[in-house]
């Protein structure tokens, strides 16, 4: 879905769970690029705004999103869900996450981010987790998205991907993620 919520156009990916309820929405600016760095050239690949992505939401196995890029590449995101126990605040009926007690509670952690060339099967992998003792974390490492009427806006990512022959960089600006509760309508509120 191509839409314009602010000063720039975005591609919106929406995915539903087994009950046909929207569970994940990701907005990627239309001008986002994936660069493959070769010895004598850099190849620039855009997101394919005409192709529909695919995705699935599953609390046990994690949620994934496949976003088509041009030139036969697919970007694959995979999140794992970590539930949080319900903790009622005295007299308010809300938990510590701020959602009603019958809604899903927890966070999604970005576990895997890859780009694959469908024709050649070449895979580029990003290092999505930080390591103990790592001096500086990248913004995309340990990314958490809280379930419920909550969103996260990132000002921009330059993600390094590692391939067998070449490396690559994903350049994203003003990326927005939102995860939704297990019941009720999705209300995308993330325009930060």
Automatic annotation (TrEMBL):
Protein name according to UniProt: Uncharacterized protein
């Amino acid at each position: 879905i191509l839409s314009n919520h602010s000063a720039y156009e975005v591609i919106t990916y929406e995915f539903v769970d087994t009950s046909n309820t929207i569970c994940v929405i990701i907005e990627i600016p239309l001008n986002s690029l994936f660069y493959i760095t070769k010895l004598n050239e850099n190849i620039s690949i855009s997101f394919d705004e005409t192709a529909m992505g695919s995705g699935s939401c599953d609390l046990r196995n994690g949620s994934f999103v496949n976003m088509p890029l041009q030139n036969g590449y697919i970007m694959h995101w995979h999140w794992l869900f970590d539930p949080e126990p319900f903790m009622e605040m005295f007299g308010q009926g809300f938990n510590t996450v701020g959602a009603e007690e019958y809604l899903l509670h927890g966070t999604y952690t970005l576990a895997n981010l890859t780009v694959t060339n469908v024709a050649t099967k070449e895979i580029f992998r990003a290092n999505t987790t930080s390591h103990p003792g790592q001096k500086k974390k990248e913004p995309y490492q340990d990314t958490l998205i809280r379930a419920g009427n909550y969103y996260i806006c990132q000002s921009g990512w330059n993600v390094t991907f590692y391939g067998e022959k070449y490396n690559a960089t994903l350049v994203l600006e003003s990326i927005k993620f939102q995860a939704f509760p297990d019941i009720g309508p999705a209300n995308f509120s993330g325009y930060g």
